[in-house]
Amino acid sequence: MPDHAPHRPPAAPAAARAARPLRLGVCGPVGTGKSSLIALLCRELSGRLEIAVVTNDIYTDEDARFLRSAGVLAPERIRAVETGACPHTAIRDDISANLSTVEELEEDYPELDLVLLESGGDNLTATYSPALVDAQVFVLDVAGGGDVARKGGPGIERADLLVVNKTDLAPYVGVDVPAMLADATAARGERPVIGLSRTDRASVDRIVAWVEEVRRSQAAGVLVPSDPGPMARHVHAHEH
Amino acid sequence: MPHPELLLLLLADARLPVGGHTQSGTLEGALTHGLTANDVPGYLRTRLLSSTRVEAGTAVVARATVERHGSLDQVERAWAARTVSPALREASRTQGHALMRLVRRTWPDLSRPLDDVVRPSRSTVLGAVSAGLGLGAASVARLVAYDDVQTVCAAALKLLPLDPVTVAGWAAEALNGIADLEAAVSWAELPTDIPACSAPQIEAWAQAHAASTRRLFRA
User: Fold this and answer.
1) Could you say which of B20, B24, B98 has the minimum Cβ distance to residue A100?
2) Number of domains in chain A
């Protein structure tokens, strides 16, 4: 299968406004800060963008409730999808429950600019289908261990953005953040990596700028959703 | 059109992307409120005698209605009147929506009779589409009943630590109840023929489940 570049040159003049909102997926293992990242994006962007959120809770509506109680969005703009203990399935091979919820939100709020989807915390192999999201962020955190980025996996290697979260905790968990970011960057080639801490303003600005950039390319009709894939990419490292 | 038997297999297959994995047939609510693994075979039989007859009857009548070019709106209303729990109505409409997505793309002509029905239930969609696919009334009844049995059994494997062969045995045993259900509903033609025999206890569990904060399944 050929590699698909995430962007291609514009075929038509940039539209002022996309036909539908950007659908941005956030996935990654349990406890890495997916809900917090979504709350942060809502706080940073809700002043200028119309946003809604779909959560995929594994065992509770905890994530939806967390976001509602964070007060960053009107509660009715945050909807939960139950996945029957199949968080992986619900974002990849049978996306119907998520897609229906996204479409409902888009119908109820025609002015939406951005729909954020939060996957249930799963393992390193869980990624979104490009039929569900236009772009996806894979979230790791330093507390999960400095070697996780090196372990790789489709999300770490090929999600549109990799976030290494909670960098402020590094001194307490004995993780070398620059080394972890270097591992991640090595695994991802050209694809971006952001070390994030909500107490580090510059890192917050970087992720907001990334979302804005993705939104611009989607609005211009030049964003092609790409699949990080469920499997390791075949690499001919020793071709003669 | 392919052979009706193949179409029936396609519609009964859990791999059909219509969000079946989000449903437990209220088993999760039932287990939370005291049912145990030993009760699951009885729970399957009870459903086939009650709420699943409403669903299967609705599908059979929706099929007959499309065949005689009638209005599905009355079928949908008859189903809603017999499905007392708002949580179960909502769950069915959500599944109906997913099934409609599939039908519109796969067999666009067959979705036309449903165009005027607002958020049709899963059974109404299934029955209406069955007419266009050439499935008989008895097949439609069996399809709805079989799907219900397998929904509960698949959820049981997630909710209870069981040998999957045990659960497959429960499903096989429940097939006898499906024959009775089929005889009870497959003659139905009119919305008034749909049995009104839902199970109040299942509805109460479904309502309690919808209000719970810790759940794996939508309903």
Assistant:
1) B98
2) 1
Q: Which of A209, A175, A232, A135 is nearest to A183 (CA)?
A: A175
- Chain A residues touching B118 at Cβ < 8 A: none
Strand residues in B14-57 grouped as ranges (E)? none
Q: What is the CATH number of the domain that holds A183?
A: 3.40.50.300
Q: What is the pLDDT of residues A11-55, one digit of tens each?
A: 444 444 568 999 999 999 989 999 999 999 999 999 999 999 999
d(CA B116, CA A148): 52
* pTM of the predicted model as reported, rounded to 2 decimal places: 0.84
The domain locations on chain B are: 4-206
Structural domain including A196 reads: 22-219
Given CATH 1.10.4190.10, say whether it is the number of domain B4-206. yes
Chain B contact for A83 (CB, 8 A cutoff)? yes
Spell out which residues of chain A touch residue B22, defining contact as CB-CB under 8 Å. Answer: 81-84, 86, 90, 97
Which residue in B17, B20, B215 is closest to A82 by CB distance?
B215
Judged by CB atoms closer than 8 Å, whether chains meet at B17 and A86 is answered as: no
Contact at 8 Å (CB) between B32 and B155?
no
Q: Give domain status of residue A198, yes or no.
A: yes
Measured between beta carbons, the chain A residues lying within 8 angstroms of B101 are: 96, 99-100
Largest CA distance in chain A: 59
Q: Tens digit of pLDDT for each residue in B123-161?
A: 999 999 999 999 999 999 999 999 999 999 999 999 998
Answer whether residue A91 is part of any domain: yes
Whole-angstrom distance, CA of residue A152 vs CA of residue A159? 11
Interface contact B101-A96, CB threshold 8 A: yes
| Residue A34 forms part of a structural domain | yes
- Residues of chain A with Cβ-Cβ distance to B98 below 8 Å are 96-97, 100
Smallest Cα distance from B101 to chain A, Å: 8
* Nearest to A87, CA basis, from A52, A60, A114, A105: A60
What is the value of ipTM here, to two decimals?
A: 0.80
Q: Report residues of chain A scoring pLDDT below 50.
A: 1-16, 239-240
CA A131 and chain centroid, separation: 14
pLDDT in tens, A142-158: 999 888 988 888 999 99
